[in-house]
Amino acid sequence: MIEPSSIAPGGLTLEAPAVRIQNLNYFFGQGDLRKQVLFDINLVLPRGQIVIMTGPSGSGKTTLLTLIGALRTVQNGSLEVLGQEIVGLSKSQLVEVRRNIGFIFQAHNLFDSLTASQNVEMAIELTHDWKEKRQRAVDVLSQVGLGDRVDYKPKALSGGQKQRVAIARALVNQPPLILADEPTAALDKKSGRDVVTLMQKLAKEEDRTILMVTHDNRILDVADRIITLVDGRLESDDNLDQFVVSHDPKALDRRMFII
Ligand SMILES: Nc1ncnc2c1ncn2[C@@H]1O[C@H](COP(=O)(O)OP(=O)(O)OP(=O)(O)O)[C@@H](O)[C@H]1O
Ligand SMILES: [Mg+2]
């Protein structure tokens, strides 16, 4: 029996793995143009893990991430997010599931006319008290090292700072699951490192689960686990040591940078 305290808003269960995928296939297109892009995916992401997903361009990484994020409809198989099967949920139930997920994309999608604080405030739910919103936005911006930039607009921020505002926005509702699609792609080495170190800290200190797509092999060391998708299939699932042993760095570089 599940204790009432273990039920998160929206009826999601806190003890279940963050993600459990069974026999998932996915197709784009209709009729003759129907094309399978994901093949029999089976994957469990326990709580608190930081998992990197890598693989060649076009292998299906973004498609899988958006399925897990309930941003597209699962056609086939089973996908549980935080203990809840999302196959067959209504649109409004999917919105509830998405409330528990923080999204960080490569294009940070900040509003240029709003300050850093206002961009974060926009994402805050369940309160209409503007003072409280402002305080929470400032707190989370301080957490990502932008306490002195809260009233700057995006054009006055560097690429790394903008990406940190996007991270602050993804974190402000304290989601247990964070999905990131190439969060460091537009950043220089130092800013990219700062961003992933921050994400690693969150995963460890606050028991968040992070699934991050990246081609950036300079940041693989933050991962507890590295999964590789090739042609729509999960080809490998390793911890970092196994990954380094089983992937020749030169082959890895070639494979990761196929465009
Ligand atoms: N909306 C769409 N309609 C039809 N096909 C699509 C659509 N989006 C993606 N695809 C195809 O699905 C496959 C997987 O695409 P996806 O974007 O998931 O790859 P990816 O691994 O994220 O690649 P990248 O590393 O370049 O971002 C590709 O063959 C792509 O052309
Ligand atoms: Mg992609």
Radius of gyration: 19 Å
Overall mean pLDDT: 85
Instruction: Give the number of DSSP strands.
Output: 10
Q: What's the oligomerization state? A: single chain
Quick one: overall form? Answer: globular
Order of neighbouring strands in the sheet with most strands: 6-7-8-3-9-10
Which stretches of 5+ consecutive residues score pLDDT under 50?
1-5, 254-259
- Determine the strand fraction and express it as a percent band: 15-25%
Q: Helix/strand-derived class?
A: alpha/beta
- What is the makeup of the main sheet? 6 strands, mixed
Helix content: 25-40%
User: What is the string of helix and strand elements?
Assistant: EEEHEEHEHHHEHEEEHH
Number of helices: 8
Cofactors, ions, other ligands: adenosine-5'-triphosphate, magnesium ion
The end-to-end span amounts to 49 Å
Describe this protein's structure:
This protein is of the alpha/beta class. It has a domain at 104-174. Helices cover 32% and strands 24% of the residues. The protein is built from 8 helices and 10 strands. The chain has helices at 61-68, 91-98, 116-121, 130-143, 159-171, 189-206, 240-246, 249-256, and strands at 19-28, 35-45, 50-54, 76-81, 84-85, 101-105, 177-181, 209-213, 225-230, 233-238. A 6-stranded mixed sheet has the order 6-7-8-3-9-10, with helices on both faces. A 4-stranded antiparallel sheet has the order 2-1-4-5, covered by helices on one side. β1 and β2 form a beta hairpin. α4 (130-143) packs across α5 (159-171) and α5 runs parallel beside α6. It is globular. The chain starts with 18 loop residues before the first strand and ends with a helix. Residues 1-5 and 254-259 have low confidence and may be disordered. The structure holds adenosine-5'-triphosphate and magnesium ion. Magnesium ion (MG) is lined by residues 61-62, 181. Adenosine-5'-triphosphate binds at residues 28-29, 37, 57-63.
